[in-house]
Amino acid sequence: RAHESHANGVCYYTEGMNNRVLERLTLERDLRMALSRDEFSLYFQPQFSSVENRIVGAEALLRWQHPQRGLLRPPEFISVAEETGLIVPLGEWIIGAACAEAARWRRDGHGAIAVAVNVSPAEVRRGGIPAVVRAALDRSGLPAHLLELELTETLMIDSSESVLSVMRELKNMGVKVALDDFGTGYSSLSYLRRFPVDTVKIDQSFVHTVVTQAEDASIVRSVIAMAHELGVEVIAEGVETPEQAAFLRRHHCDVLQGYLLGEPMVADAFRHQLDQPVHPLLQHFPHEPTHA
Ligand code: C2E
Ligand code: MG
Ligand code: MG
Ligand code: MG
């Protein structure tokens, strides 16, 4: 505990540091108990096909109902989970829960609705992902092609050989692989050739400025065109306005995701969305041409 009597610059700095260390230790302690206390849940955000005009999938997004701090989003705790190795049991829970929920959509008769799951670089590097996925698919009965794992570019820069072999194993199982946050890293385009990627997710930072900045508009257009030439599907994330959606549909972006189409929601609410015959937001862009 810092002493009031030593309230000079040095002491303040130390006090701040101690607080940060303490905060981090507390978070780590809480994280260790969170799984067994059932404090994690998955939210689901709709992914909307601009070709078929319907929901074709959802991204599973982790939430932590912290007993004191309320509902926490991954940026507030995922790095601690990664550094402590807690990401391994947590990741196993996430993949299992996502597959179980997607299998339920299928049992409810909604057809082929896919689920996308974020996987940390730390999870992939520690290995075991293919086995975890296999077990989750077997347990849930979800067909492999309805599971998509979202990996980030950073992963591919750091450890391409081992990552490549994990991706091949997943591909052999029939699981899909998406490149998340596309465009935020380096030499992104070459990854599409080197790695067996099914989908790229154009990062929100490009999507947000697509109708206001000419450069971002041309980047998005060329990413879509190039991905399609390589047989890769394109998802735009962070779609917030009808203008952004219109631009993306006009340039043949396959799938739209963002607050405009639906925020991340609890499992019950997403199931309710699936029950709607027509997506309520279709009214925003009813006259846009779809794929030619
Ligand atoms: P991400 O995979 O790029 O996910 C997209 C993030 O953008 C999500 O934040 C989502 O809630 C938010 N988002 C969606 N639509 C919009 C929009 O229209 N506008 C804006 N401004 N934001 C939007 P979230 O849920 O806080 O997740 C943040 C990041 O945490 C994710 O980025 C992902 O990298 C990571 N993450 C989330 N769930 C998991 C998980 O289960 N496992 C792991 N390892 N990482 C996860
Ligand atoms: Mg993601
Ligand atoms: Mg991400
Ligand atoms: Mg992203």
From TrEMBL:
Residues 24-278 form the EAL domain. It comes from the Bacteria. This is EAL domain-containing protein. It comes from Tahibacter amnicola.
